Amino acid sequence: MQRLTDSLTGEYGCSPTAAQIAEHAGITIEQVLEAREAYQALHADSLDRPRHSGEAGEQTSLLETLGTPDAQIGHAFERAALDSLIETLDDRDRTILRLYYQHELTQAQVGRRLGYFQMHVSRLLRQATERLTLAAAE
């Protein structure tokens, strides 16, 4: 798959789309995407590899951004607490929160997926987060 991608990049002058690769390989787009994921899984980056932080060209490693083990445990407990609070909401509100915050869909996209207007999704998100805030204060 990588050799075909490299070959098509030379031919097109830019990276080929999944559809172009699928057409040339005689496979489905889904199979191309699965092959890309498998390839990426085989070639993981080192946690020590320098990466740009965006501030005056400074470089840090991914390991440095993870924080201390105590901070990681704190984040795990916060996540578990949030998950238990989310479970107190009804199915619709949980779905809306997950689509918006975890899947990073816009309010309009959430609305289209669930059959609501964007403004209604906005109200439902606000109400759900208010209920979560109140539940967390208890």
Question: Summed up, what is this model?
Answer:
Helix content is 69%, strand content 4%. It is mostly helical.
Any chance you could write out the topology, listing elements then pairs?
Layout: H1 2-12, H2 18-25, H3 29-42, E1 50-52, E2 59-61, H4 62-65, H5 69-86, H6 91-102, H7 107-114, H8 118-137
Antiparallel strand pairs: 1-2
Helix pairs in contact: 2-3, 6-8, 7-8
The largest sheet, given as strand count, sense and whether it forms a barrel, is: 2 strands, antiparallel
- Please count the helical segments: 8
Strand order of the largest sheet: 1-2
The low-confidence parts are none
User: What proportion of the residues form beta strands (DSSP E)?
Assistant: under 5%
Structure description:
This protein has 138 residues and is mainly alpha-helical. It has 2 domains: 62 residues, Arc Repressor Mutant, subunit A (Orthogonal Bundle), CATH 1.10.10; 50 residues, Orthogonal Bundle (Arc Repressor Mutant, subunit A). The protein contains 8 helices and 2 strands. A two-stranded antiparallel ribbon has the order 1-2. The mean pLDDT is 83.
Name some characteristics of this structure.
138 residues; mainly alpha; Arc Repressor Mutant, subunit A; two-stranded antiparallel sheet; 8 helices; 69% helix
